[in-house]
Protein: Class I SAM-dependent methyltransferase
Organism: Pseudomonas songnenensis
Amino acid sequence: MPASVVTRLPVLRALLAQLLALVAVWLLLLGLAGVLGIRPNLVVVALAQGCLAALIGARLGLSAWWLAINLMFVPGLVLLRDFDVPGWLPLGAFTLLLLLNWNAFTERVPLYLTGREAERQLRNRLTELPADFRYIDLGSGLAGSLSRLAQDFPAAQFVGVETAPLTFALSWLRCLPRRNCHIRLLSLWRVDLAEYDVVYCFLSPAPMPALWKKARAEMRPGALLISNSFAVPGVEPVEVHELNDWRGSRLLIWYPGSATPDGADTSG
């Protein structure tokens, strides 16, 4: 597999870290048994493998939550064995996590849910737009906020794009009663942003530089790019709305179609 693919997909880097840690611990066990006659307890071995997998993952640039998964994966399997847990249960839990958080495994974008204060601030900002605006949520998750906003602005059109299979299915069903709200099984990178007056996202730091480049190329002058919490490196937002929640979150707003090449807004 090309190195670029491994670098781009964190799940493959996590798997590589696990495999390297397993090989290293296996070699260490062979040395301890052959030279010193020491055979450590299985739980101790599993914890050592987990710590080493987390360290290797950190060297490979994995985010904190991936490091926690690397740390606990093998020790968790060993502990589950001691509790006589059916073998299908951890596999089922992992599959459910994968179906809900596919973007976290493929594009370093975990499932974040828009809070009620962020939703309130969004609602207030949207009231300043013409009634028939077009709004898209890039990575719409479970679409709770999207559905409620669609109800509040019946003349507007709301679209959510999502690639996590189970998340998409649940949000599609949720928005089904809303005639002005549609969920698409589509990557945000395949969306033409020129169609929308408002582009909202709650992603992670990783995709923001590429998203800004895409927004600059596609969005119309005057159209809003709104990011929950995550900034565009080196580009000051035109508007900042503090959410005053426990995370210190903010809504950051730019006008990419009205910006100069250095990011400065020229909309006047």
Summary: The domain at 116-258 is CATH 3.40.50.150 (Rossmann fold).
